[in-house]
Design goal:
The protein starts with a helix and ends with a helix. Strands 3-2-1-4-5-6-7-8 form an eight-stranded mixed beta sheet, with helices on both faces. It is built from twelve helices and eight strands. It is α/β, with parallel strands linked by helices and about 220 residues long. Strand 7, helix 10 and strand 8 form a beta-alpha-beta unit.
Length: about 220
């Protein structure tokens, strides 16, 4: 499917996904099913990714990173230690979903995230100057995304937390989450993203909207 054909098939807008690992491709499949036009990019030229994207995410288009960054909504799903490889200029002005996690056990200690009181998404946001960064999708496993997705109003529908400093950007991401098959709960500003980073109860659990709201309230009250 070329970009023109995909545009006729999709009606919700364009999602750019930076990263073609298990998280990025799972999100791409959900977005395609929801009616989005999906563009996937890695640090490699688009031509190097065409075959694997065609096989793993049928309906998505392999593009260069700059084209993915020009999408209506951009999801960053690369290993966090590579965050400085992102083109901050290309992402300026864009709503960017930070789906990354800091894994010191696998990535080693990274000073950017160790020697600071900031949440990991605040560190990313400081690098992506001008981007409207929203943290979400980091606390659901790639293997849970498709099985757990459910229609709006489904009993015990899984919920995802959303943290960000831009209310309009958070609303946009919340709408995206809903179309993919999940409820969303506003966690507050980007600093509140600490409440669902690795090692927290929220990161390790599965919650519906009411349960997640309660867990966030408890986490922020005891922070």
């Amino acid at each position: 499917m070329d970009i023109g054909e995909q545009g006729e098939a999709a009606s919700r807008g364009t999602i750019g996904i930076l990263g073609a690992g298990r998280v990025g491709t799972a999100m791409a499949r959900l977005a395609i099913a929801a009616g989005y036009r999906v563009k996937v990019a890695t640090s490699k030229p688009a031509a190097d990714n065409e075959l694997i994207i065609e096989i793993v995410t049928p309906g998505a288009v392999a593009v260069d990173a700059g084209e993915a960054a020009a999408s209506d909504l951009v999801v960053v799903a690369i290993p966090l230690h590579k965050y400085r490889s992102l083109d901050a200029g290309a992402l300026a002005g864009r709503v960017v979903v930070d789906a990354m996690n800091y894994w010191a056990a696998t990535d080693g200690d990274i000073a950017d995230f160790e020697k600071t009181h900031l949440s990991s998404s605040e560190v990313v946001s400081a690098y992506l100057v001008g981007s409207r960064v929203v943290k979400s999708f980091n606390h659901i496993g790639y293997h849970e995304m498709e099985p757990d997705a459910a229609e709006q109003g489904s009993p015990n529908r899984r919920a995802l937390a959303v943290a960000g400093d831009d209310e309009a950007a958070k609303a946009m991401v919340a709408g995206f989450i809903d179309t993919l098959g999940f409820d969303s709960v506003d966690a507050g500003d980007l600093a509140a993203g600490k409440a669902f980073e690795p090692g927290t109860d929220i990161f390790n659990g599965r919650f519906n909207a009411a349960e997640l709201a309660q867990a966030l309230q408890h986490s922020l009250a005891t922070a």
